[in-house]
Amino acid sequence: MTLVLVFLYLPILVIVLYSFNPSKNSGIMTGLTLDWYRKLFHNAEIARTLKNSLKLAAISVPTAAVIGTLGAMALARRHMKLQGFMEGLTTLPILIPEIVLGIALLIAFTFIGRFINLQPGMTTMALSHTTFCIPYIFIIVKGRIAGIDPALEEAARDLGASPRRVFVDIIFPLIFPAVLAGMLLAFAMSLDDVVISFFVTGPGAQTLPLKIYSSLKVGVTPEINALSTVMLCVVFLFVAISQQMRAKKT
């Protein structure tokens, strides 16, 4: 296990180390500098793609949170036919290889585009990211709902509370940390997605990971290393906060 972890994380540490390298030659370490980070934060193209990534996450993650939370409540509190099948379908986007899901979404949007004006761009990107973000929120929220004592809801109803009042005053406050944890994890997944975005993107909708991918065609520069380091820190931060919030409620 130690060898596996070293194999996985050593290249990441190398990227972080070379982001401080003054030399443009990534094979030679000549010292330490922050010049590449300064150039990165003054790069207008990077700022534009970062804005697209944040805009995309701001649209897709809240939408996925609503759908995933409602779906988790329905499947956790209702016993219906084919419930296991429905749960499997909900989590399927996590299990399907991203390249297969990206191709499937591209075909779906192409077919829909025959009937309505749906061009590849921010709309198709938002729909795609919402699709693969839903399972992350669904799984976390469903696990939290399963741990809530049903007697709390029954007691509230016995006291005359309507289903809406039970949800607003009892259920939602209890599941809110799980919803927020799922949103943070979904945000991290949306922020660093490349494969699915590659298939459904359009003019003017390039995201930050796609910018990095296109830049790699001309070689890995220290500026790309710096950008990768910043993205790693942001993603690790969101995942750590998400895990911490889940741990406090388990």
| Strand/helix succession | HHHHHHHHHHH
Major sheet characteristics: none
Residue ranges: pLDDT <50 for 5 or more in a row?
none
Radius of gyration: 22 Å
Which fold name is given in CATH as the topology? MetI-like fold
Total number of β-strand segments? Answer: 0
Class from secondary-structure proportions: mainly alpha
How many separate helices? 11
Name of the CATH class: Mainly Alpha
Taken together, the total number of domains comes to 1
Instruction: Please indicate the percent range of residues in DSSP E strands (runs of 2 or more).
Output: under 5%
Mean pLDDT over all positions: 85
Provide the CATH architecture: Orthogonal Bundle
Approximately how much helix is present in the residues? over 70%
What are the main properties of this structure?
single chain, mainly alpha, MetI-like fold
Indicate the topology.
Elements: H1 2-18, H2 35-41, H3 44-77, H4 83-95, H5 98-112, H6 122-146, H7 150-158, H8 163-191, H9 195-200, H10 208-215, H11 222-248
